[in-house]
Design goal:
363 residues, BirA Bifunctional Protein, domain 2, 2 domains, eight-stranded mixed β-sheet, three-stranded antiparallel β-sheet, 41% helix, rod-shaped, binds phenylalanine
Length: 363
């Protein structure tokens, strides 16, 4: 009865292995090596054919029994391992919903008020049919001064403190542009009327106090047409201010002034009231100068080959930082450029607060 003994050893061996197995793939290997076509139990089954009927009966039933025991054990172990797998999966995927949310960079970052206001201005003028133009920060003397009717000997050259740069290779005198008006010249040279453009950007003057920084921002506006006139200029500026400051009426004062590149020239003040340390739009406790403007000087038109008998134009230049201070209540211009994160966190805008006329300019 050595064969029966072998069966007992084989059973113990396989059952041991099943118990020790740690994964479903281990179980599968055992199933193949015992019950598969060439498995240990299957090979023994084949031997049955060579036995005497009596031996066959006894051995056969033992072998069948062994098959059932192993099959049951395998199924049992398989269920245990499957359950364990699911539990582990659930444990690994557990989320602690009481943990505070981590802020993404998208939420932490802030848009500088100057960028935001530039977008607001562009949105308003785009809606009125103005295109956006650009020019270089480093300008040549011709575009910054001469073409704008400010020849070298002209006293207006001394009106602003210019940052001069070494001349370029062609010996052209270079400056950091003192205003955005050179973009008027560039646009009139490169485009045919009718022209309606605004040009927001950086400008530079050697100046520094509570309301002046050496680098600041302006937006230039230019309209050239056959019949551009001062009524349209006033309407554009008034309409712009009302939409920008989000109020129905605004006190504006148009003062005669002088710029070499406009004739007549006007400076525009907005009526403000003082609340504590802050200036608020509305009222007329105080007039705040926000822009220069006028009808484009005939000589400037001639300088860019436009006939002043055919074309008329108006232009304006506004201080963007000033507009931002007035709208959002900052009192010191210098802090705009200190790169102090606390300031930016307080006055900055979330990056998804994109100004639009339909969605509201400011929230
Ligand atoms: N460039 C002028 C300044 O910087 C402003 C201005 C622009 C005036 C356009 C008239 C027309 O002060």
């Amino acid at each position: 009865m050595g064969k029966i003994q072998d069966l007992i050893i084989l059973e113990k061996d396989i059952i041991d292995n099943i118990e020790k197995s740690l994964s479903l793939s281990d179980i599968e290997k055992i199933r193949i090596s015992s019950m598969g076509k060439k498995g240990a139990v299957s090979l023994l089954m084949r031997e049955l054919g060579t036995m005497s009927p009596e031996d066959k009966k006894d051995y056969g039933s033992k072998l069948n029994n062994l098959k059932n025991v192993i099959n049951n054990k395998i199924n049992e172990k398989q269920t245990i391992l499957e359950d364990l797998g699911i539990e582990k999966l659930v444990a690994d995927e557990k989320v602690d919903i009481t943990l505070p949310l981590q802020k993404t960079t998208l939420e932490l970052g802030r848009i500088h008020p100057v960028s935001q206001v530039m977008d607001e201005i562009s949105e308003i003028f785009s809606d009125m049919g103005f295109a956006i133009a650009e020019g270089p920060d480093i300008e040549d003397d011709y575009h910054n001064f001469s073409a704008l009717n400010i020849p070298e000997s002209h006293p207006a050259r001394q009106m602003v403190d210019t940052f001069y740069l070494p001349s370029d290779d062609e010996n052209k005198a270079l400056v950091l542009r003192t205003h955005t008006s050179p973009v008027q010249i560039r646009t009139m040279i490169s485009e045919k009327p009718p022209i309606r453009m605004i040009a927001p950007g950086r400008t530079y003057r050697s100046d520094s106090d509570q309301t002046h920084t050496p680098m600041f921002h302006q937006v230039e506006g230019l309209v050239i047409d056959n019949d551009a006139n001062m009524g349209q200029l006033k309407w554009c500026l008034e309409e712009f201010c009302k939409i920008f400051f989000e109020i129905n009426s605004i006190n504006m004062r148009f003062r005669p002034s002088y710029f070499p590149f406009t004739e007549p020239s006007l400076e525009v003040d907005i009526g403000c009231s003082k609340v504590g340390n802050e200036l608020k739009i509305g009222g007329n406790d105080q007039w705040l100068e926000v822009l220069g403007s006028g009808m484009v000087h005939p000589q400037v038109l001639r300088n860019v080959n436009l006939d002043p008998d055919v074309y008329k134009g108006f232009a304006f230049g506004m201080g963007i930082d000033r507009l931002a201070m007035l709208k959002y209540g900052m009192s010191d211009l210098r802090s705009f450029f200190d790169a102090d994160l606390r300031w930016l966190k307080h006055y900055g805008f979330k990056c998804l607060d994109i100004p639009s006329l339909s969605g509201g300019l400011s929230k």
